[in-house]
Amino acid sequence: MKYWWVNQSQTYLAEVRGSFMWSPKRRADGSRNQFYDNMQEVAPGDVVFSYCDTRIKAVGLVTGRAQTGPKPDFGAAGANWSREGWFVPVDYFTLSNQIRPRDHIDILRPFLPTRYSPLRSTGDGLQSVYLAELPLAMADALIGLIGQAYWDAIADIVAVQTPQESDLDPVLLETSITGPTFRDQLVRARRGQGVFRSNVLLREERCRVTGVDEPRHLKASHIKPWRDSTDAQRLDGSNGLLLSPHIDHLFDEGYLTFSADHRLVVVPEVENKLVDAWGIDLAVGVGGFSREQSAYLDYHRAHVFKRQLLE
Fold first, then answer.
1. N or C: which end of the chain has fewer CB within 10 A?
2. CA–CA gap between residue 220 and residue 207 (Å, rounded)
3. pLDDT of residue 310
4. Phi, psi (deg, nearest 5) at residue 48
């Protein structure tokens, strides 16, 4: 097992909420970058310390090897980065004790790597660093400084069940619906661990129906179904909603949708049998939708929602 330091000052929200790390493969001028090359050295089970705004805010466990993937929708961050890079899936947990390394540099300084250190000798972070391997002694020192919060975070991550292969869309697995470069990324996105989920999390904060706002308990649900979408639409965050699992099931199967005037609409079968049992409030305020989301919802109402059950 190795320990890594990832500098997420620009991309913390997207990467931690979306459960991944992403970097370009090369610098803008085409030259190598050791901190990007390190993405290929990361292995499942490795520990990642997430550094942002001068503090270690989260820790993560790597769940898969690096694969080629399109750049997530980071907004203004990384405007000059290439559109294709390295994608590594990571399960994170936000620390209850977020230490500032600069406050403890006298302890950490003796353990800083001689090459490719993520910190200056003053304790200040290096913006040029994305992913750096940590010596075991430095990782032990960080764990000691974080204390019990570190072990609580690791235990929480391990307790979260990883999606099983049976969760994958069988149509996606049986057909080559994308080119080889993006296919692995799109599979992972369908499992809720990839760029699509991150892009949805950048737009949505909670389930529109239940109000649940903890990402690990929500699914990133495509509005326009996966099989009907183009490659770009499959990763478009506007083509998604964060939904609780039972709401995701009803939405995906066409038993539930959202009207053009932002109301929850369900078929009689659901209203008669499941509304009370599942605690669904038909009068819930679902909030507004962006213009792009509204266009996808038009498609959902026309082609997915089981309209005939209302007749």
1. C
2. 10
3. 58
4. -120, 130
Structure token digits, residue 262:
């932002």
Residues across the chain: 311
* Angle at CA of residue 189, ends 261 and 46, nearest 5°: 135
Q: pLDDT digit string (tens) for 69-95?
A: 888 888 777 777 888 899 998 999 999
99 three-state secondary structure: coil
C-alpha distance from residue 57 to each of 94, 96, 128, 258 (Å)? 6, 8, 19, 36
Please say whether the dihedral angle defined by the alpha carbons of residues 176, 179, 181 and 186, taken in this order, is positive or negative.
Answer: negative
| Residue owning tokens 């038993």 | 255
Q: Which residues contact 251 (CB under 8 A, 6 or more apart)?
A: 221, 241, 243, 257, 300
Map out the domains of the chain with their CATH numbers.
3-159 (3.10.590.10), 165-310 (no CATH)
**Rounded to whole angstroms, how far apart are CA atoms 60 and 89?**
10
Structure tokens at 39: 């993405």
Instruction: Round to whole Å and give the CA distance between 261 and 298.
Output: 11
> Measured between alpha carbons, how far apart are the two ends of the chain, in Å?
59
- Phi first, then psi, for residue 282 (nearest 5°) are -65, -20
- Is residue 224 within 8 Å of residue 239, measured between CB atoms? yes
Of 69, 279, 48, 305, nearest to 182 (Cα)? 69
Residues 163 and 193 sit within 8 Å (Cβ to Cβ): yes
The answer to whether residues 67 and 11 touch, using CB atoms and an 8 Å cutoff, is no
Q: Look at 4-13, 19-28, 300-309 and tell me which has the smallest mean pLDDT.
A: 300-309
Mean pLDDT of the chain: 86
pLDDT tens digits for 131-182? 999 999 999 999 999 999 999 999 988 887 444 333 434 443 343 334 444 4
CB atoms within 10 A of CB 250: 21
d(CA 49, CA 47) in angstroms, rounded, equals 7
Token pair for 146: 């974080």
